[in-house]
Design goal:
Strand order of the largest sheet: 3-4-2-5-6-1-7
Number of helices: 27
Family: Belongs to the helicase family. RecQ subfamily.
Catalytic activity: Couples ATP hydrolysis with the unwinding of duplex DNA by translocating in the 3'-5' direction
Strand content: 15-25%
CATH topology of the largest domain: Rossmann fold
Largest sheet: 7 strands, parallel
Keywords: ATP-binding, DNA-binding, Helicase, Hydrolase, Isomerase, Metal-binding, Nucleotide-binding
Number of strands: 22
Organism: Lacihabitans soyangensis
Shape: globular
CATH class of the largest domain: Alpha Beta
CATH architecture of the largest domain: 3-Layer(aba) Sandwich
Distance between the termini: 56 Å
Number of domains: 5
InterPro entries: DEAD/DEAH_box_helicase_dom (IPR011545), DNA_helicase_ATP-dep_RecQ (IPR004589), Helicase_ATP-bd (IPR014001), Helicase_C-like (IPR001650), P-loop_NTPase (IPR027417), RecQ_Zn-bd (IPR032284), WH-like_DNA-bd_sf (IPR036388)
Radius of gyration: 27 Å
Oligomer: single chain
Length: about 625
């Protein structure tokens, strides 16, 4: 059996682990339940992939994002590791084939969505699988206090009961103390080991700039900071506008969003990764799973809804541990828009009912119908069909998803797949009866070999057409003919978003909604929004320290390189002695000025007055009617 370091070297080419990775792996190999918090770029996947290769049996990985699942499976397969994923939009026969391979020990990593865990065919196959490890990626999704709660994650614990002796490793990049406690409780991690890496990024300089001319300010930043950059914007239109502006000013830039075709997205992404394009202006659809270490700058031209999302997105800069910059541009309208958007995210119950009823009509869903069937979904077409506002409909769908009634997946590429389901004798007889397709059938076997009888194979209609000397459309027609006559099982490629129902059809006027839960989610989001506003508007506390405070990391060490630290340094307020005094003052609050002076009688009075004045002027301290000084 190979040691973890040998596995790391063999498959990933690294000589040593990053901080905490080895300890986490050791905990998993000891079959202890484990919760690991590693920041963006900290190497979470290694923490379950290395022990997954060492432990006997398949490692089941639960992940909420199809794009992330597909990306990790692709990376594992490129390293010669057997991995597959089951997600919405796949045919029943294809999922059965993958599950059969898992039972037969042909797969080492099986990625699934949390919804899949409760399906009958999956639970049935688990009884025959040797499972070595259960890995829960994006574990914060199980907590209602997390920024991306998924009700389907609450079902993981029921699934764990089927595998009582299998260790669980839960991983996330962003979790407050409350969320960590919730993860351990909801997953029932027994005698679990907790590993938390510092949220501090010593090479990443955070800044906030108020500007009414964001395009001009962005251009100044990109001219000053050389190298690859990502610019995040809220809407698709804004990605196009900012990209055009940059190109008009001699900056190599492009835009990216989920509304582009698959070919366009792949081309744009590859050009950026290979440094043919310097700046990618994108919605948050870009960046997940992309491990480009040399991003020197991440600029947000629109504010995020919460610090968790901002920390993840900004953390894509400087993964090579060299100096990098994370900059947020804002103006007063942005702060007002955040408040407005929050209200829109919680539409009236009557509108939720209308959207749900429209979905049932759209897909002709019968009462008490089977669940978990996946449908292509295009929100513009759906909204236009029923005269619904697209933006409000989007928020209604997300709320219905949070209540466990439906599930949504973003657009993703699922390549065409093919399997010959007729036996060799039937396949030969078919060719004799249809001589015009004999050469076509032989072409399929020549390109894909005998494996096409045993497994679903990713195929390219264009490749088949080139070999068969036919057009793309003619190849598709031939494959559909073979499919119709039950010679092959053919699934054309998909790029559409998917929507599915998680419960039998309900009465739209009496939906099983948890109103208390909806209200608590809204309260929680308001709290998160206040944290974003404070981070944005304050200019007296180290940005990195403020983020660490948000994630309940107990430290007083400032980063020294954010905009606030640099300003304090100019004022002489960022020395070792002033930092220590600031920490002492903070720990004594709330208290009166007289009590502060008494408690700190031996401290430098001039420095103390300077610190308190600065913090009052910059809104970090305030005083009430009773004369008590306290932190805001």
């Amino acid at each position: 059996m190979l040691l973890p370091e040998e596995i790391l070297k063999k498959y990933w080419g690294y000589d040593q682990f990053r901080p905490l990775q080895r300890e986490i792996i050791e905990s998993v190999l000891n079959k202890s339940d484990t919760l690991a918090l590693l920041p963006t770029g900290g190497g979470k996947s290694i923490c379950f992939q290395v022990p997954g290769l060492i432990l006997d049996g398949v490692c089941i990985v639960v992940s909420p994002l199809i794009a992330l699942m597909k990306d990790q499976v692709r990376q594992l397969q490129e390293r010669g590791i057997a991995a597959e994923a089951i997600y919405s939009g796949m045919k029943f026969a294809e999922t059965e084939s993958i599950l059969d391979d898992a039972v037969d020990g042909k797969i080492k990593f099986l990625y699934v969505s949390p919804e899949r865990l409760k399906t009958h065919n999956f639970l049935n196959r688990i009884n025959y699988m040797t499972v070595g490890l259960l890995a829960i990626d994006e574990a914060h999704c199980i907590s209602k206090w997390g920024y991306d709660f998924r009700p389907s994650y609450l079902q993981i614990n029921e699934f764990k009961a089927v595998l009582p002796k299998v260790p669980t490793v839960a991983l996330t990049a962003t979790a407050t103390l409350k969320v960590r406690t919730d993860i351990i409780e909801k997953l029932e991690l027994k005698k679990s080991n907790l590993f938390v890496q510092s949220f501090a990024r010593n090479n990443l300089s955070y800044s906030v700039i108020e500007s009414e001319q964001k395009e001009v300010k962005l251009l100044q930043i990109l001219k000053k900071v050389e190298g690859t950059a990502i610019v995040y914007a809220k809407t698709r239109n804004r990605t196009v506008e900012f990209s055009k502006f940059l190109k008009a000013n001699s900056i190599s830039a492009d835009y990216y969003h989920a509304g582009l075709s698959l070919k366009e997205r792949n081309t744009k992404q590859e050009d950026w990764i290979n440094n043919k394009t310097r700046v990618m202006v994108s919605t948050n659809a870009f960046g997940m799973g992309i491990d480009k270490p040399d991003v020197r700058c991440v600029v947000h031209v629109d504010l995020c809804d919460n610090l968790e999302a901002y920390y993840q997105e900004s953390g894509r800069a400087g993964r090579d541990n060299l100096k990098a910059y994370a900059i947020a541009l804002y103006n007063e309208n942005d702060l007002e828009n955040l408040e407005t958007n929050l209200e829109l995210k919680y539409p009236e119950i009557s509108f939720l009912s209308k959207v749900y009823q429209s979905l049932c009509n759209y897909y002709k869903l019968a009462f008490e119908s089977e669940t978990f069937e996946s449908y292509d979904f295009e929100i513009q077409n759906f909204s236009a069909t029923f005269g619904l506002n697209v933006r409000l409909t989007h928020y209604a769908l997300k709320l219905l998803e949070s209540q466990g009634l439906i599930y949504l997946s973003d657009s993703y590429f699922n390549p065409s797949k093919l399997k010959i389901i007729a036996n060799s004798g039937e396949f030969y007889s078919f060719q004799l009866r249809n001589p015009h397709l004999e050469l076509f059938c032989k072409t399929l076997l020549r390109i894909y070999g005998g494996e096409i009888y045993a497994n679903y194979i990713n195929i390219s209609e264009q490749e088949i057409g080139n070999a068969y000397h036919a057009s793309f459309n003619e190849v598709v027609q031939n494959l559909e003919f073979l499919n119709k006559h039950h010679i092959v099982d053919y699934t054309p490629q998909k790029t559409m978003p998917q929507l599915g129902f998680l419960t039998p059809r309900q009465d739209a006027d009496n939906l099983s909604l948890n109103y208390k839960d909806i209200e608590s989610r809204k309260v929680n989001e308001k709290k998160a929004l206040r944290a974003v506003k404070f981070y944005t508007e304050q200019s007296a506390k180290c940005r990195m320290l403020l983020i660490q405070d948000y994630f309940d990391e107990d430290t007083s060490k400032t980063c020294g390189i954010c905009d606030v630290c640099l300003k304090l340094k100019k004022l002489g307020l960022n020395t070792e002695s002033t930092n220590a005094l600031t920490d002492k003052i903070t720990k004594l609050l709330p208290c009166t000025a007289a009590n502060l002076e008494l408690q700190l009688a031996n401290e430098n009075k001039e420095e103390m007055a300077k610190i308190i004045k600065f913090h009052f002027e910059n809104g970090l301290l305030t005083i009430d009617s009773q004369g008590l000084i306290f932190r805001r």
